[in-house]
Amino acid sequence: MIEARARVIETGAGFAVVEAEKQSGCGNCDPVKGCGKSSVSKLLCSGTQRFEVIDKIGTRVGDEVTIGVQDGAILRSSLAVYLVPMAGLLAGAALGSSHGDGASVLGGAAGLFAGFFWSRRYSSANRENLQFRPYIVKKLY
Predict the structure, then answer these.
(1) Can you count the helices (H) and strands (E) in the chain?
(2) How confident is the model at residue 9 (pLDDT cuts 50, 70, 90)?
(3) Are 98 and 31 contacting, i.e. CB atoms less than 8 angstroms apart?
(4) N or C: which end of the chain has fewer CB within 10 A?
(5) Measured between alpha carbons, how far is 68 from 86 in angstroms, rounded to an integer?
(6) Rounded to the nearest 5 degrees, what angle is found at the Cα of 26, between the Cα atoms of 20 and 31?
């Protein structure tokens, strides 16, 4: 499970809106010893994120909480968003390559479009699937 700390800013029936600090990828940022990604991360990704999470433990506004999302959800979502369109692009280009360069380009574009279309339908179909939604794991204090 992937976890992060957040603060509850709004509550409702079975859900809460939380605000979390954006974090760098590795959590080992040090301007002297680190890789330097920290500087880029601070420039492009400073601030906080707000999003709705499932709240089964009954939090209140101002509570510090740990939120989590299942590892498998991240992997499946990443595959749907990145791998499927790329596979469509490559498959379409390969199928069109036997008919020349123009057909290869058109086949690749059609495959990419089909992959994006499938990803959008997959995302819409799983929008309410609780396995893909973040949730509050515990109150911190």
Answers:
(1) 4, 5
(2) very high
(3) no
(4) C
(5) 29
(6) 95
Structure tokens at 40: 């880029």
- What is the CB neighbour count within 10 angstroms for residue 5? 13
Q: What is the DSSP letter of 82?
A: I
The Cα 102–Cα 84 span in angstroms is 23
Query: With helix as H, strand as E and coil as C, how does 122-140 read?
Result: HHHHCCCCHHHCCEEEEEC
Q: What is the pTM of this model?
A: 0.61
Distance CA 79, CA 126 (A): 14
> How many residues appear in the chain?
141
Tell me the average pLDDT across 70-95: 91
